[in-house]
Amino acid sequence: xxxxxxxxxxxxxxxxxxxxxxxxxxxxxxxxxxxxxxxxxxxxxxxxxxxxxxxxxxxxxxxxxxxxxxxxxxxxxxxxxxxxxxxxxxxxxxxxxxxxxxxxxxxxxxxxxxxxxxxxxxxxxxxxxxxxxxxxxxxxxxxxxxxxxxxxxxxxxxxxxxxxxxxxxxxxxxxxxxxxxxxxxxxxxxxxxxxxxxxxxxxxxxxxxxxxxxxxxxxxxxxxxxxxxxxxxxxxxxxxxxxxxxxxxxxxxxxxxxxxxxxxxxxxxxxxxxxxxxxxxxxxxxxxxxxxxxxxxxxxxxxxxxxxxxxxxxxxxxxxxxxxxxxxxxxxxxxxxxxxxxxxxxxxxxxxxxxxxxxxxxxxxxxxxxxxxxxxxxxxxxxxxxxxxxxxxxxxxxxxxxxxxxxxxxxxxxxxxxxxxxxxxxxxxxxxxxxxx
Length: 437
Hints:
The protein has 437 residues and is of the alpha/beta class. The chain has helices spanning 3-9, 17-34, 40-67, 77-95, 102-127, 133-136, 165-168, 230-242, 274-289, 306-317, 339-345, 351-356, 359-364, 385-397, 414-431; strands spanning 180-184, 198-202, 216-220, 249-252, 267-268, 272-273, 299-304, 324-328, 372-378, 401-407.
């Protein structure tokens, strides 16, 4: 990709000039389209167009969100209002195509595109998860990160510290004020799974000479979604600032490959060996390339939404790798939003095989005496609260040390993710030896 292409894809679209410019142009354009000679016929035409646009928006919303439950969760009032406003504006532009001069027709046609683009940007800003043009289209814009040399370790890897790290760590004078993010391609040597470059976060303590081995977090985002490290970096930079630069090293792994597909974090003929990629390729790469403590007690598997289901499932299957799990607004089980389709397409109608990989059943199959689990969800996320409560209860029954927490009015969008990360790491820091209990 050229430097210009990278720069364009990296343009911010949330709380950024592009969004406000688009909104401003749309308001001016809409005013122009409405302000014609105010005859009764024109006033009635504009009024009917606006009402028709809102009615169409409401009908589409009812069919896709209420009846078909296409998104698995209500996108929320703000998203509906932006959708309705976009449809109404487009309707006003369309009626300007009739009985008008050529210049007005051209402006009306261009306005349709402008209003649709503005609506997409505004709706995206309501979710807040796609921060750049690139992330909106599933294209990563993080530059390749420069990894620090990994100290030579024993064949079994860097052992756990004798005392908690926060007690032995003395921040050097040149400690950076914040960590750094970037991307790395993780080879799919064993799995063959096609993934996008992983996001990487290195905390301040990892960026100094003679850096200590640090805990590892493997995080997975939602679907559709991107392996974007910026959200967890914001949380951990704040935590690191309060704890002498200490924070975990993070891999934001891509469990999807194609953001429009859900591989279920399983090994399947349909979507490839996603589970093997995460538990072998990613893990092996981390051991060789990152200065991490090679001990399950200091490893955390984490995820949001689709990634949350992946996190609790992998924690239940692989306690030899992960002794900590963070499940933020997670799906209750793989493919829970389209269970009938998954049962038919992936498991070929074998309900027992499908049930066997559901995390509630995985948790019931063994005891976890030294696993810490944090489950979070938006307090108004009615579609996901019941599942998170069941998951936290199942984890507690399996012996995990469990925290269940609801983000005040976090919904299933950005506040649920950021609040969930903040709460989860306030619990994980003492567990990982990064702060006093």
